Amino acid sequence: MGLRIRNRLPALLRRQDPSRRHLRWFNRIGRNLAGRSSSSPHVAPPKASLLGSCLRRSALAGNSSERGFTLLEMMVALAVFSLAALALIRLQAYTIRTAGDVERVTMARIVAQNIATDILTDPAPPALGTEQGVQTNGGVPWAWRTETKNTDDARILRIDIGVASPDGGAPYILTVVRPLQL
Fold it and tell me: In this structure, are residues 28 and 35 in contact, taking their beta carbons and an 8 Å threshold?
């Protein structure tokens, strides 16, 4: 009964409109199935997959304006893609710069820890005041400066170690404390 109703659609709905071609395809299948002998008077058309339906529609679409993309759509897609690509390029430049900063800070920390180890393992306490020097680490000269002060407890010294990178970035500062007598 469902097929008879579909076959009796007004001629206006069954005209040669490209958007209605899938209805004609279902009508053809319905007529073919209705012509077969079946134990059930109600024969439903087979369920088509979404992919199959899209492929049939594209194959049946004869109008060239329904295939492909318009120039405006392509220009918008290209603009969106170029914005995404520029964002990725900026992100890569930021990542490279950050990696360089991390390497610089790591090497400055290593130099400061080496100086702190020398000060803490020396049996004689460092002199109060400021000392400066240059230490080469990794083939790069690192300028360092130590400032030794007394704390509230006269038996403990506070030593601030600052290491400046050769490229003039902010110095890395390490503070250690040491007893006056070991």
Answer: no
Domains of the chain, with CATH numbers? Answer: 2-66 (no CATH), 104-179 (3.30.1300.30)
List pLDDT tens digits, range 10-40.
554 555 555 555 555 556 665 555 555 445 5
Contact 76, 32 (CB under 8 A): no
Surface-to-core class of residue 125, CB atoms within 10 Å of its CB (0-12 exposed, 13-18 middle, 19+ buried): middle
Beta bridge partners of 176: 159
Strands (E), 124-170: 129-137, 140-150, 156-164
The token duo for 56 is 């049939």
Other CB atoms within a 10 A radius of the CB of residue 163 amount to 25
Span 79-123, pLDDT tens digits: 999 999 999 999 999 999 899 889 899 999 999 999 999 999 999
Q: How far is CA 86 from the centre of its chain?
A: 13
Any idea what the Cα angle at residue 158 is, between residues 105 and 139, rounded to 5°? 30
What does the buried/exposed string (b/e) look like for 22-51 if buried means 16 or more CB atoms within 10 Å of the residue's CB?
eeebebeebeeeeeeeeeeeebebeeeeee
Q: Is 18 left (phi over 0), alpha (psi -120 to 50) or beta?
A: alpha
> pTM (2 decimals)?
0.54
